[in-house]
Design brief:
Ferritin, 11 helices, disordered N terminus, disordered C terminus
């Protein structure tokens, strides 16, 4: 068997490559008939979602806003269609590496521009409402943490009531011992008894003041939890997110006031100041002992009482300062946010929506690479084969027809014979020659 194909000068492998290239060209030609329509559909879909994204950014819903959003979306659709049409035609056709690199860099820059002007708006249209709801849910968590922290500080401050009661009880016990004569040796209600009773009364008043704050703390915390429940309901309530955001903002303002109220209800600063005053402001009564020895005993006992008083005040103040040193609740403020901003801020939570928004704009890049590979395969199949050896039958017939027409044009036109004198009509009487 001969290793040459039926066409002279072409090996069997070259003939197969030519047929392979011709087959690919047929497929590309058929695909070219639908590529423009497909690219137009993708550009139109991207423009529609871009319009929805732009509309969510505009505050006004009038005619001017409609035309502004429509104009922007149309410009995006046209830009996407033209950009990818250029690349589908030019990038697969260039052969030099420098040209390919230049067009690939242009495609990268253009893709970034498309993402900047369209994809993020597409994502806002796809997941904007869900992103705003995510923002509301995140804000609820922040407010809940602040409310719980403020309540924890207030409850810890209310716990100082037990410390105050313990110190007050110790002074009452000492005063009882003084009344029976077991402390200074002088029974009755003398100078030492009056000092001890004075401090016990001060602590009893502080204890009552702390106790009066307890119902206020509980009421503020309960109302805060009720407000949080309403805010949580607004985050998952069906319907448009804009009116829900308005109600959410109102509840957020109310909750912020309750958190501030809880912070102000903390009695720790009050206890700290009272503990400081407990040892600093002592009104010493006049010693009433009948003898000098008795008065010296009273003076010694009062000095001991003042020393114990300073120790108890330091302990109480240390407990109050520990409550004051607790981390204050974070300042949480709800800030309304647009759907586009919400999608960008919480992009990590909406990766599928971002992927879809970007894919609808950059999917033609895959078609460009497919055409590049196909055109490279076509060129590889025709490599080493002359053009005259790759003509198809229809192309050969068309070429022969063109050659025939050119031969007809180049063929000289025969001269028209002129009439001879004998053939001219006779003049005179008008008689025709016989």
């Amino acid at each position: 068997m001969s290793d040459k194909a039926s066409q002279p000068g072409i090996s069997r492998a070259e003939a197969q490559g030519v047929r392979y290239a011709a087959e690919l060209e047929g497929h590309v030609k058929w695909l070219d008939s639908i590529t423009g329509a497909a690219l137009g559909v993708l550009a139109t879909a991207s423009g529609i979602y871009t319009y929805l994204g732009v509309s969510s950014l505009l505050d006004d819903n009038g005619a001017l806003s409609f035309f502004a959003a429509a104009s922007y979306s149309i410009a995006v659709s046209v830009g996407i269609f033209v950009f990818w049409s250029y690349l589908m035609r030019l990038l697969p056709s260039v052969r030099s590496m420098a040209s390919r690199i230049g067009l690939l860099v242009s495609m990268g820059i253009g893709s970034l521009a498309i993402i900047a002007m369209s994809s993020w708006l597409n994502a806002a249209a796809l997941a904007g409402s869900a992103a705003v709801e995510q923002h509301l849910a995140k804000t609820v968590q922040d407010y809940q943490a602040s409310l719980e922290q403020a309540n924890s500080i207030a409850v810890s401050a209310q716990g100082l009531e037990r410390d105050v009661a313990r110190v007050r009880q110790s002074f009452e016990d000492l005063s009882a011992q003084e009344a029976s004569g077991d402390l200074s040796g002088l029974a009755g209600r003398g100078a030492v008894f009056r000092v001890l009773s004075q401090k016990a009364d001060e602590l009893r008043g502080l204890e009552a003041q702390i106790a009066s704050q307890q119902p206020l703390v509980e009421a503020a915390f309960a109302e805060g939890n009720a407000t949080l429940s309403r805010m949580r309901a607004l985050t998952v309530e069906p319907g448009p997110v804009e009116p829900r955001s308005v109600h959410f903002s109102e509840e957020a303002v109310r909750l912020a006031g309750l958190i501030t109220q809880l912070r102000q209800l903390s009695v720790a600063p009050l206890v700290s100041r009272a503990a400081q005053d407990l040892a600093a402001s002592v009104v010493l009564p006049e010693l009433d002992g009948r003898t000098g020895a008795a008065r010296e005993g009273q003076q010694s006992t009062i000095a001991s009482v003042l020393e114990v008083l300073g120790q108890r005040a330091a302990t109480l103040r240390s407990a109050a300062d520990a409550v004051i040193a607790m981390p204050a609740p974070a300042d949480t403020t709800y800030t309304p946010i647009s759907t586009a901003d919400a999608v960008i801020r919480y992009a990590g939570n909406f990766a599928p929506s971002w992927a879809g928004a970007i894919a609808i704009d950059l999917l033609p890049a895959v078609l460009v690479f497919i055409l590049m590979v196909t055109q490279a395969a076509i060129r590889s199949g025709r490599e080493g084969v002359g053009i005259e050896q790759t003509l198809t039958l229809s192309e050969l017939r068309a070429a022969m027809m063109v050659l025939h027409e050119m031969d007809e044009v180049r063929r000289p036109v025969p001269p028209v014979p002129r009439p001879t004198p004998a053939d001219a009509p006779a003049k005179g009487n008008g008689a025709s020659p016989t």
